[in-house]
Design a protein that fits this description.
By secondary structure, this protein is mainly α. The protein is about 70% helix and about 0% strand. It is built from five helices and no strands. It has helices at about 1-10, 15-25, 35-45, 50-65, 70-80. Helix 1 (about 1-10) runs parallel beside helix 3 (about 35-45). The longest helix is centred in the middle third of the chain and has 14 residues, at about 35-45. The chain is globular, with a radius of gyration of 12 Å.
Length: about 80
Amino acid sequence: MVWAFAKAGVHADKLFQMVANEAVQRQVQGFKPQNLSNMVWAFAKAGVHADKLYEMVANEAVQRQVRGFKPQDLSNMVWA
């Protein structure tokens, strides 16, 4: 959802904060690699700061040893 808002250039800070809080609360467990990369890309594209979210996504990628991440997923995460 946040990807669509970021792609369209729609500012929805409250939505982004709610998504970040929920993802952090879930500790980004159960998220597929593409979901993680699209989410952090959307936050970066929208200029929304969510340091805890970025940290959790980075830790999750390291914990998974980036298994399952396609080159595009990794590229999006690094860009974000």
